[in-house]
Amino acid sequence: MTKNYVESAVRHGQSLQEAKVAAISQAFTLELEEDGSPVKIQLHYAGKRVADPHREVLVLSGQSQLLEAFGAVVSGIAFEEKHWLVLSELSAGVTLVKVCMRMAVHFDCELPNCQQYIEQTCQMLINLKQLRFESVLEGVEQRLLIG
Question: Superkingdom of the source (predicted)?
Answer without folding.
Answer: Eukaryota
